[in-house]
Amino acid sequence: MGFESELINRPPEKLSIEGVSKSFQGRTQTVKALENINLQVREGEFVCLVGPSGCGKSTLLNIIAGLDFPNEGTVQADGKPVTGAGSDRLMMFQEPALFPWMDVFGNVMFGLKLKPKLSNKDRKEVAGFYLKLVGLERFRHAFIHELSGGMKQRVALARALAPNPRVLLMDEPFAALDALTREQLYGDLQEIWQKRSKTIVFVTHNVREAACLGDRVILFSPRPGKIREQFEVSLPRPRDINTVELAKHASEIKEALKHHLKPEMEAIE
Amino acid sequence: MRPWFAALIFFGVLVVLWEVAVRVGVSSSMLLPSPLEVGRYFVTSIQDRTLIDASYVTMKRLLLGYLVGLVLGLPLGLLNARFRFFGATMGLLALGLQTLPSVCWAPLALLWFGQTEAAMFFIVIMGSLWSITLAAEAGVRNVPPIYARAARTMGSKGFHTWVKVIFPASLPFVVTGMKQGWAFAWRSLMAAEIYVTILTGFGLGHLLHYGRELHAMDAVIGIMIVIIAIGLIADKILFSPLERFLHRRWGTAR
Predict the structure, then answer these.
(1) Which residue ranges make up each domain of chain B?
(2) Same-domain check for residues A173 and A266
(3) Do A145 and B171 touch (CB under 8 A)?
(4) What global pTM score does this model have?
(5) Looking at the complex, does the CB of residue A206 fall below 8 Å from at least one CB of chain B?
(6) A144 plus A192 within the same structural domain
(7) Chain B within 8 Å of A187 (Cβ-Cβ)?
(8) CB within 8 Å of A91: residues ≥ 6 apart
(9) Is the minimum CB–CB distance between B198 and chain A shorter than 8 Å?
(10) pLDDT tens sequence across A23-40
(11) B149/A89 Cβ within 8 A
(12) Would an 8 Å CB–CB cutoff place A116 in contact with chain B?
């Protein structure tokens, strides 16, 4: 450690991914899902990972969450290496993954019950607050199968937010929803992100969605999954996905994505 | 028409057909007594308490043995599913022993425990334990992995994940296994009681056995009806509420 680095003394990045590679052993061949990924995410940043399916972006999210481990490289959260899953980096999945043996309220309480410092009264209040936030307080005693797909994903969002994670990892959470519900949730998510000052890493294959939500959009290309390009999106918040400004940004990113995928497409042909 | 009403009529018709068969003389009354004679057997055997006492002895053996089978079988199944080593060893043993008809335990139980209650319990436990173990293991293996991942990302670890997530998630499967275990326990106990003379208590199986020896067909048929009724009632009391609960939660009811 030199004199200069001591002077600079920046706080550690919220998430720091360095040289991460991951391959899966298939039945006939080894698939390289990620190759030498380097990515820094600042505290309070909203980062979107975009790319076609099979580009390893979900794998990267799993590795950040501590649900999976890289073959090479390191992941650090707040300067400490990630050794396993934990509610400080809470992951929300593409499917709601709600527990059918509990009612809606029980599901939202699950993560809260794992926080020993809260009293039971506080837990119930917090769970009630987030159910209200996603507009489902009337359904607190409903069973999971009684909800529509959009409602389930809202409960999953409330469940993910309730333990107040500093980092929220979202793996195409709105992919299965209808456009109307999705657009409403874009608004809700931006509001929650701003109000509760969270760091969000959001995986999607929808470029427009990425441009709407992200401060920064990171382009991935598949086989092996690599980061190709980064875009800053500096539109004012809250953003509406249907504005012309946003469409311009999105088409710019889409062009870049096509460009990066071109050699890939030609190789397939 | 309400289901219980339909059932009442159905069984009523069966009894009437039975009576008609006896009157027409399908078989000698030595081999097929009329419903009325069986009814008379019920009245006398309930009055002199033989049927009630035997039912009590049998139910006690069954419930206690089955309970031990559950208490041992459920954790054993979870262990088999959790640890590869257990699955490869105990899991294989459970599979092997489950294929063994449980009445085959009777000679061994007799020599080990003598003509005692312990022999009866042993046979019931061996009859139910292995199928419960296998069902619990299969139940856990059928839990969608996403549940455990969701729990882990919310900070659940190890034992907590198993008790709060994997076990409840496996319940629909496990309950099917518990029912099967119950059926096996019932069968093995009846076989054991018919086969083994026990000096400490006279169960329904013994009663059935002596009914045959004395050629009391009314008793034989009457006791069989009691055995069927106990099986039905146990299913309705023990398992139906549990299944209804699961169906309501999982939304699998018709």
Answers:
(1) 52-250
(2) yes
(3) no
(4) 0.81
(5) no
(6) no
(7) no
(8) A61, A62, A65, A67, A85, A160, A169, A170, A171, B149, B150, B153
(9) no
(10) 888 888 888 888 888 999
(11) no
(12) no
